[in-house]
């Protein structure tokens, strides 16, 4: 028996990076997984690689109409939702001096508003004992130059996690945050000035990590699986740091 046998899960930003690695793990553990993302071609490719126990639904978390469509697709399956991984995120990277109002709004809209309304719209579908996981970031507590607005959105998600854990405890629903350190994903690689600078960027990122390297997406997926499964049945309102010791060592 897999750890998520007969469970239904939804992963936003599930076509790439941490979301896709987690979708792969959830399917291997017996779940049916809905993945969402903004880019249809990327979604189709991801769904194909995941096989028949995955359903791809295009949807931008910053668009409330898209979110309704996504949850309609889950509703149509008629099994409720046992695991919600509200993982989609990204945003602008700029110093205080350079940050524009548009970058500020875009980053808060995707990371905070997008996550809040993903979780809100999932509420009617969540089963008793469901697990909700949001994706934070170690940048929230590290004061990394040029990560100010992104870090602030991830700090906000830590706060929401604690509030929602209390609000939803009466239904037995657990809410936790996974807090990855630097992780080798297309999103992270996209921060490099060009493909020839990727190795240099990953090397720089690894310098701040006591374990001396960035994470592989599978390592983050393992921690998310712990929060999604009954293995963490008494864990709620917590932030699980999968960061190679970046924040605490
Ligand atoms: P990624 O770019 O590889 O994948 C992100 C996925 O989210 C993509 O499929 C993208 O299409 C989707 N997405 C982005 N904006 C969206 C939106 N508005 N609506 C729907 N889907 C959207 O990125 P990743 O590195 O795997 O990041 C996943 C999460 O992990 C993000 O929340 C990110 O902030 C967080 N995170 C990443 C790292 C890291 O080092 N990679 C570290 C800490 C936290």
Automatic annotation (TrEMBL):
Assigned keywords, A-Z: Oxidoreductase
Coiled-coil segments on the chain, per record: none
Gene Ontology MF, one: oxidoreductase activity
Database matches in Pfam families: adh_short_C2
Domain of life: Bacteria
Annotated ranges, domain Ketoreductase: 7-185
SMART domains xrefs: PKS_KR
Keyword Cell cycle: no
Family: Belongs to the short-chain dehydrogenases/reductases (SDR) family.
Protein name: NAD(P)-dependent dehydrogenase, short-chain alcohol dehydrogenase family
